[in-house]
């Protein structure tokens, strides 16, 4: 499996004192839609957070095949940017400055393509975990994408805005709940909600893909017979999620529902011969091949 990447650095980082620009993974064109994946850096996670509930013996050969450590994972965070001449649509908002020091690098990627947050017309959220929405606010706690409409699934919004969630979510994710509520409240006057099956923007269809979170949404971008699925964290990594999509993952809030969702998404993507972009997949964009009982991610350049 070869993953090719082209980093556009736009000359930044050449002079001392400037942080190196975050990479832009050059992506693809779908009809009028230009689609790029932008890096927000990466996360550092204890392996247990993902691998904990999996059959450990059967896991070992998969970890070996992908050169992964059982102890720690460093998944990339890749946002999807869709531009069609009228709209500048950002799928998720990244981590912002307050989650992990290795993440929150989105503005460097924006600089590299000469885009500013005010240019964004729509922020479309897959779900409200920290690496996806803590970047909604700037350093002063004001909306960073100040000119944008903000769209989120109705089930997802209700879940995180419910005060009971902070008590029910479990100690490991309590900070996620507090953080999500604060940020979603700060943009509440800009939020529009949607439900399963809605065409939320021209050529952008919402699909319920619950399980990773209670209201997680994926987005089908379509131009005639050509489709591309933005899966967010419904397919959350390029290794175990592909090799054994039916296994429970510790990173999913409802592991059983998430596994059923993953299997259904793979069915849909392969049956329709679609490509996909996953938030934590290397470079973001790629396609799916069958391999044995499972699948394999084939990363793609432009
Ligand atoms: Zn994530």
Please characterize this protein's 3D structure.
The protein is α+β, with helices and mostly antiparallel strands and 302 residues long. The protein has a single domain (24-299), classed as Ribonuclease Z/Hydroxyacylglutathione hydrolase-like (Metallo-beta-lactamase, Chain A), CATH 3.60.15. The protein contains 9 helices and 16 strands. It has helices at residues 47-51, 56-65, 106-112, 130-133, 154-161, 164-168, 174-186, 240-243, 255-271, and strands at residues 24-30, 33-42, 45-46, 72-73, 76-83, 88-91, 122-124, 149-153, 191-194, 199-201, 204-208, 217-223, 226-232, 275-278, 285-291, 294-299. The relative contact order is 0.16. Bound molecules: zinc ion.
Layout of helices and strands:
Blueprint: E1 24-30, E2 33-42, E3 45-46, H1 47-51, H2 56-65, E4 72-73, E5 76-83, E6 88-91, H3 106-112, E7 122-124, H4 130-133, E8 149-153, H5 154-161, H6 164-168, H7 174-186, E9 191-194, E10 199-201, E11 204-208, E12 217-223, E13 226-232, H8 240-243, H9 255-271, E14 275-278, E15 285-291, E16 294-299
Parallel strand pairs: 6-7, 7-8, 8-9, 13-14
Antiparallel strand pairs: 1-2, 2-5, 3-4, 5-6, 10-11, 11-12, 12-13, 14-15, 15-16
The chain binds zinc ion.
